[in-house]
Each structure stands twice: as structure tokens, then as C-alpha cells.
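tl;dr need the bound structure. longer version: we got a ligand (NAP) that a collaborator sent over and nobodys looked at where it sits. i said id run it. heres the input, straight from their email, havent touched it
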Amino acid sequence: MPDTHARCIVITGGSRGIGRAVCLEFADPDTRIYFNYASSEEAARITESLVAEKGGTAIGIRVDVTSETEVIAFIKRIMTETGRIDVLVNNAGITRDGLLVRMKEADWDAVCDTNLKGAFFCLKATARSMMKQRFGRIINITSLVGVTGNAGQANYSAAKAGLIGLTRSAARELASRQITVNAVAPGFIDTDMTAALSKEAALAIVDQIPLGRAGLPADIAGAVAFLASDKAAYITGQVLHVNGGMFTP
Ligand code: NAP
């Protein structure tokens, strides 16, 4: 029998970084968390243990968001086990940086497939059950550079800008069923994704942040929790910038 009493939260890319922080933010005894990851088996088990330490339940499953078949099977499994999905957080993302003139088609495709098409697959697979429930919260993790652009990140900026367009269209399509769709746009957050930068490059970015520090994954998780809460019931189609004051839209 599905466990229809528990609130059910689905997070893509929950093995590390921001996704793990979002899992921890939602960890409580009345919530079942499902997350996926691409390959970090060990990190996924750590996320599960950390959630369990907070009294919650998290189940991490290896699912490639660029495969629609895998995404559909993932969502079907969750629906069989819980009977509902209350919140979907599309967080899985990658970068393959390089100057535009040298960018390989494979790097363009990998970034757009993961950051944008992956979110579309998850949204599509989940929306029908949320429509039946007449309730849902969908939060897409875009990026500051999806709004500002960034040299060396044409693929990533385009994918993240596309995710904002997807957010706004889905918000309009799903609003009549009381499903909200919003995006969170992080600035510079301390995770494996940004760890690849040199110390000098990282310091130069922090210099431009009015709050004087890089963001923490928990800073983003707090914004996601707000958009998933009843307090955000009248907010849809919006982009919430969480960037320490680096940019004002
Ligand atoms: P991260 O530490 O590199 O973690 C990325 C997560 O995505 C991992 O859990 C990874 O799984 C998962 N993932 C990657 N490709 C996947 C795929 N094909 N299928 C399923 N899962 C996949 O990155 P992060 O910094 O936490 O970033 C999280 C999100 O925030 C991304 O969308 C990123 O673009 C966005 N963001 C980050 C920053 C920043 O400064 N860090 C700023 C703006 C926006 P594995 O562990 O298995 O690889």
C-alpha cells in the first residue's frame, strides 16, 4: 500500500552540494525524500545517513536525468511507494566551460541535456500526478548567469536561461491546478562545482559579493524550502535570486 500520509519530496542531484543541503532542509519524520544522482554512490549513501540522523527518510537512486526512460521509471516507483509527490526540485546540473569559439558540440549538448532537458523530463513525468492531486510545488535551480550571461559559459548560461523560460511557461500551464513553479537563481556557492576554480579566481568573485562571502548550499536550501511552503502559495513563475547581493534584477 502506498504511504499516502507522508509528504513526498523529490530532488534531482541530491548526492552532493546544493541537492544534499535541500535533502537535509526537508528532513523530518513526516517527510519521505527521494533523490537521484548520476554516479556518486558513496556520496548518495552519506546524504541518506545525514537525513536519517535528522529523523528523516531519504532514498537515493541512481537515475540519469538525461534519460527520459530512467526518469519515468524513477517517478513511477515513487508514485507506487507513496501515491503522491508534493514537491519536485530540479537541481541536477553540470558545467563544461570553455570559450564559445572553441566549444565542442558534445559540451553544449551535455550541459543543455542535463540542466534543461533533464528538468523538462522530470517536470513532465511529475506534473500529471500533481494535476490530479490539485497541488504541487516545483522549484527549478537556475543560475545568476542564466540572467547575466558569463564569458566561458555560453552552454551553461543558455541552459539556465532556458530553465527560466520553462519555469514561466509551466507556471502558467499548471496554475489552475494550484501547482506553483518557481526558480531559484544561486550566485556563487561553495560546492564541488565551484571548487574547480583557482583560489585567485574564487577570491575575485567573492570581492564582488556585497555580503562578503561565497554562499553556502544551506543558503539555497532555505530559499527552496520557502518556495515549497504554504507561505509561498501565491508566488508562481518567479525567479528568486540568492546571491549575497551580487546582482539585482
Ligand atoms: P555539484 O556539487 O556538482 O552537484 C551536482 C549534482 O547533480 C550531483 O548530485 C550530481 O550527481 C547530480 N547530477 C549531475 N548530472 C546528473 C545527471 N545526468 N543525472 C542525475 N544527477 C546528475 O553541483 P552544485 O553546485 O550543488 O549545483 C547544484 C545546482 O545548482 C546545479 O543545477 C547548478 O547548475 C546550480 N548552481 C550552482 C551554483 C554554484 O555556485 N555551485 C551556482 C548557480 C547554480 P553525482 O554526484 O552522481 O555526480
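gonna send this back to them w/ a short note. Residues 12-13, 15-19, 36-40, 43, 64-66, 91-94, 114-115, 141, 143, 186, 188-189, 191-194 surround NAP (CB under 6 Å).
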